[in-house]
Amino acid sequence: MIRNIAVALMTLALATPATSALSKTPIERVVTPKGIEIWLVRTMEFPMLSLQFSFLGGAAQDPAGKPGVASLATSLLDEGAGEYDARAFREQLEGNAIEISFSANRDSVRGSLKTLTDNNDKAFELLRLALTAPRFDVSEIERVRAAVLANLRRASTNPGEIAKNTWYARASPNHPYGRPVAGSLESVPDITADDMRGYIRKNLARSNLKVAAVGAIDAATLAKLVDRAFEGLPEKADLAPVADVVPQGLGEREIVPLHVPQTVILYGGAGLLRNDPDFIPAYVLNHILGGGSFESRLFEEVRVKRGLSYSVSSTLAALKHAGLFIGSVQTKNDRAYESLDIIDREIARLAKDGPSAEELEKAKKYLIGSY
């Protein structure tokens, strides 16, 4: 029988002495008349504006018995708002070359706006409507819900999704981080329009808002536009407290059988919070271990030397209430344990001996160049 193995191997992230680099990007701090803080990068070469914003909270604020509320609600914010039904809202966006999108992750609801500066007024008016007057029409709810359920059914047979959901559930039992962000086949059918309206009312507020903008615009003009878009939101968010959590089950492995020819392995454990003074040193060290470049140790040992996998990686996931170290690899079923043993060995070797001077120099140059 051909099987897939999803393995949750918990291990520790590492840290080395600190290094630092100064950003050359000129960032202006702008505070609007309504008190909203914006980080602005002025680039006048092109007549465009890109806005990114987030509201702290995210899927961690879903009701315990209804995971998926944040994800479904944010999927519907641009499916009709104010006087515009879903079709009319899309026509307004497309007719003016405006892009607006929303999404939810574990810690935040995120949004983006992109527009030509000639259409700034229209773009921010549509953003205002999406944030403050989403329609949640029954027809659009059911259409989007059907698409979400179709994705969840596909995910239920996808080795990577199974491994991810299994890992988070085992690492964070009885905690919001252990629940699937998109919800489940059991929870999504029960989410109502009132659930989504309640979520938006409690979570989208000026007190938990962060805004960044890049484009051809001056601070005063941007401040007026941002106030116009966000001033209709409540001043204070009504967020439920979320406890800090450390990964559970360190040292455990879980195998999930699946009839596919390859094994997906997800491994990880405790990492560092973003405000930890060792986070950046650990970030550099993780790059050396498996941070995505072709020169990482895991890539060299697992793929180049042994041809066990097309890709292998590790990362530091700095969530609001947990610092995590997570990695993954895909390989043939009969080489799964060999791949995992090599990864385990390389982590232990780096912990014991640290990186070489050459590895450290290459990593710093790569990361500074990518920044």
What report would you give on this structure?
With 371 residues, this protein is an alpha+beta fold. 37% of the residues lie in helices and 19% in strands. It has 11 helices and 10 strands. The strands form 2 sheets. Strands 2-3-7-4-6-5 form a 6-stranded mixed beta sheet. A 4-stranded mixed beta sheet has the order 1-8-10-9, sandwiched between helices. A hairpin with a 4-residue loop joins strand 9 and strand 10. Helix 8 packs across helix 11 and helix 9 packs antiparallel against helix 10. It is globular and about 60 Å long. The N and C termini lie far apart (46 Å). The N terminus is likely disordered.
